[in-house]
Amino acid sequence: MGKLQSKYRCRSSVYRAVTREEEPPPTQQVLQYSPAHTDMVNSVAPLNSDLCVSGGGDKAVVVYDWRMGKLQHRFPGHQREVTKVGCQYGSSRLFSASRDLTVLMWDLHGGDQPVQEFCGHDLVVSGLAVSPDGSQLCTGSRDNALCLWDVESGECLLKNAISRNLVTHLCWVPGGSCVVQTSEDKMVRLWDCRSLQVSSTFPPKQHIQTHCDVSNDGRYCLTCSHGFGGQGCEATLWDLRQTGSKVCEYRGHLQSATSCLFLPPSPGSAPTLATSSQDCSVRIWDQNSAACLTTLTLDGSGPLSSLASGYAGHLLCASFNTGIHLLSLQLDLARLCETARF
């Protein structure tokens, strides 16, 4: 009897009229916009809710309208590969670091030439962070040094070098005078920019620290690690109020985690994080439980290098092979999908 009922239900569903609500959703088409770069993209950052700035192997700094899919401006000023870009969100000023040992400041409304140049490092500039008020710039390099600059004059205010401190990334703590820094010596350091001295260090990790981010309230720091075969590929959450206190680890990537990000809060949802990796995947995490909520693998992208979020529900992801990917995040459905690339 059970078998007959099963067959009847199956047969009836074939002939029953299907309503619009029951139709499967259409396959998401990925829009291909005009490419922002002609080579690998190393770094991307939000300029405002419509524009992003990026830099990469083609030596160019690009401002792109990701909503409209249009190139806004290309600044060709560096002599070698652009390693990092940064800006004060909502400002027209943007900054780029390069393998040519310089950092340049550009103005979106100031023509094609840099409006300021910062020269003081002896090796590749591998980190930059802009102060919350936009008046100062902190840069770091593979020469083991950090420099603090006055943005208006271009003057180097302070410089400090620590042996083996090969800088990988810098992030300014919102609302304060401190900068978090990751390094190839596996250390995470907190610098006081009033004196450019290390105010505290976090317990050393077992692998190179590749990237860092700080929550908007300045309470937490997120770092991620170099690794392979699933070992050392984690992100780590730290409590800045109790420096050295590790809160949580997020494990799941199979190769080096290259970028980590606190996501804008979503009403009624737990706080979330995002990470990207050389394994071509982006993962979204529940900050409190460390559960991986969803994963998106970008086939053919090559290593993923940088993440940015300037608007709730959207992520920008830079890659080595396929430019910048625009991702749409629906937390309530635990869904992350690619909508466009450029």
Give a short overview.
This protein has 342 residues and is mainly β.
Using brief descriptors, characterize the structure shown.
disordered N terminus; 342 residues; mainly beta; five-stranded mixed sheet
Explain what you see.
- The structure is a single chain.
- This protein has 342 residues and is mainly beta.
- The protein has one domain (26-341): Methylamine Dehydrogenase, Chain H, CATH 2.130.10.10.
- It has one helix at 2-15; strands at residues 31-32, 41-46, 51-56, 61-65, 70-75, 82-87, 93-98, 102-107, 116-119, 125-130, 136-141, 145-150, 156-161, 167-172, 178-183, 188-192, 197-201, 209-214, 220-225, 235-239, 245-250, 257-262, 272-277, 281-286, 292-297, 304-308, 314-319, 324-330, 335-341.
- It has a five-stranded mixed β-sheet with strand order 1-29-28-27-26, with no helix packed on it. It has a four-stranded antiparallel β-sheet with strand order 2-3-4-5, with no helix packed on it. It has a four-stranded antiparallel β-sheet with strand order 6-7-8-9, with no helix packed on it.
- The longest helix is centred in the N-terminal third of the chain and has 14 residues, at 2-15.
pLDDT averaged residue by residue? 91
Main beta sheet: 5 strands, mixed
N-to-C series of helices and strands: HEEEEEEEEEEEEEEEEEEEEEEEEEEEEE
Query: Quick one: overall form?
Result: globular
CATH C-level label? Mainly Beta
Our count of helices gives 1
Residues in helices, as a percent range = under 10%
Tell me the fraction of residues in β-strands, as a range: over 45%
CATH H level: which superfamily? YVTN repeat-like/Quinoprotein amine dehydrogenase
Distance between the termini: 58 Å
Instruction: Write the CATH architecture name.
Output: 7 Propeller
Uncertain stretches: 1-26
Number of domains: 1
CATH-derived topology: Methylamine Dehydrogenase, Chain H
* Rg of Cα set: 22 Å
Secondary structure category: mainly beta
Order of the strands making up the biggest sheet: 1-29-28-27-26
| Number of beta strands | 29
